[in-house]
Amino acid sequence: MPDLSATRADRLSxxxxxxxxxxxxxxxxxxxxxxxxxxxxxxxxxxxxxxxFEGSAGSAAVLADKAxxxxxxxxxxxxxxxxxxxxxxxxxxxxxxxxGWLAEHAPTGARIGYDPWLHTRAWARDxxxxxxxxxxxxxxxxxxxxxxxxxxxxxxxxxxxTVQPDEVAGAASAAKRxxxxxxxxxxxxxxxxxxxxxxxxxxFNVRGADVSRTPVPxxxxxxxxxxxxxxxxxxxxxxxxxxxxLGNAVRVRPRADFAAALAELAGKRVAVDPDRTVAAIPDALxxxxxxxxxxxxxxxxxxxxxxxxxxxxxxxxxxxxxxALARFLRWAEAALPGGGETELxxxxxxxxxxxxxxxxxxxxxxxxxxxxxxxxxxxxxxxxESSAPIxxxxxxxxxxxxxxxxxxxxxxxxxxxxxxxxxxxxxFTRVLKGHIALATALFPPGTNGGQLDSFARHPLWEAGLDFxxxxxxxxxxxxxxxxxxxxxxxxxxxxxxxSEPLLVGMILSNxxxxxxxxxxxxxxxxxxxxxxxxxxxxxxxxxxxxxxxFCPIERMLIEPTLLTPAERHWLDGYHAKVLDVLxxxxxxxxxxxxxxxxxxxxx
Length: 603
Fold this sequence. Notes:
The protein has 3 domains: 146 residues, Creatinase/prolidase N-terminal domain (Creatine Amidinohydrolase, Chain A, domain 1), CATH 3.40.350; 138 residues, 3-Layer(aba) Sandwich (Creatine Amidinohydrolase, Chain A, domain 1); 281 residues, Creatinase/methionine aminopeptidase superfamily (Creatine Amidinohydrolase, Alpha-Beta Complex), CATH 3.90.230.10. It is α+β, with helices and mostly antiparallel strands. It is 34% helix and 19% strand. A 6-stranded mixed β-sheet has the order 4-3-2-1-5-6, with helices on both faces. Strands 12-11-10-8-13-14 form a 6-stranded mixed β-sheet, with helices on both faces. Helix 16 runs antiparallel to helix 17. Keywords: Aminopeptidase, Hydrolase, Metal-binding, Protease. One of its GO terms (cellular component) is cytoplasm. This is Aminopeptidase P family protein.
């Protein structure tokens, strides 16, 4: 096996040599790509290539004699497992920042490079201001120096686009573009730049296979107030079916022409989302004579509020996915205590159950398959090197999901490998209590996820416990498993910005957890649909949640005496619905197992 730490030390050294040749004293390496994506194609995985960090949020800064990797509380343990501490300093955010670290460590007069195709304008402005007081200059580079030393860098994916049928999407692309055109007219804009890959996939009712686990094509788009659009995509990725689907109102142009095409908008008012657009785009628009209209991507909210066809599709996807997960849990209950299974083998077995449906198109993310101490790493990523044996006495956590044509799933369950301890049962039950509190919450329109977050934490807080990640994220419709703008999280949770009011039709996760470093992790995750609720005797329409995910919650880990009568009633009702939804999809022996798992909990 190669010495990866030595390999990455060489990569860091090569980057420093390249920076010196360019007259730069440092460089910032974000995780994202030119579309501000959370998950990126292999060609854009610069941070992982350079540092070894495999998480979904992070960045790095390199100086001539120092380097640091920046992660939030979700990755405190993971970054130390994956990144060589002899080469890299570990820095936590948001308590610290790249700008602050550079201001402290960069020498006076230093020139720090950044790639304007990988950062927002706001980041560049704020970082430049923070550095200027120390005599340090932030410099936009014409080409990325990491790419110059990454000699075996993969090419962007050549996968063709596919059509997302209108009956599954719930609205034709022409209708979506017309609605977007009306939004542009209201903001007195002539056009909008779309850089986010899921926004483009949603607007044009197309999908792709260019980013692992997220069915989006690599593309840019310009949408106009008259309902027409320019779609910039590599020509070899187009098919006759997709061309016919897009029609004459969509002009298909090479992706490589996008940057130059921005000059064609001279004299136009162009809507640009400052949070979802890299700095190079507004810079080019202004240089070409366009006027910027700084507004949120007009597809974001429309995409987040699912229409009836998307909701029906998600229910169907959740049922088949729940049946696959139930088959896996039944297998795991019998197989894991005997030994011989690992985190990788268990994840592969679950994927096989999902593929047995015959309609799985991809996983929605790499499964978080974590046993024992690895379970205490909320976003643990199992590799060949890290895969641990699943042993008796441990808790095994599996957070996973599938991509189906009609929906995207995300679900977490915990399996005890042998009898759990009293502490494990206590912690699991407190997590369950928080899960139930959120699932049953009633709230008035206008409420945002930050206002609901404490519902899920209160049972843990009562015992002096908490968890360091968000409680819920939005989920796409055969799109990104992490979709904004809706979320349920502490107001100061990494990701920033005001929390979005929840609207009928939004889908979010409900996933409180507990993590004991070095020992085990617990998380219970279902997906929720925001819906209207009428309260008997109430004076106004309220909002609440419909649970969309159905799969048994492990009763061996529940301490019934900690549950209130109302909580036991919810759990028994949930398991009754699990039987109704999954029972018809399972064989006789599987149904018998499920019946035992879903029996009333008792007191």
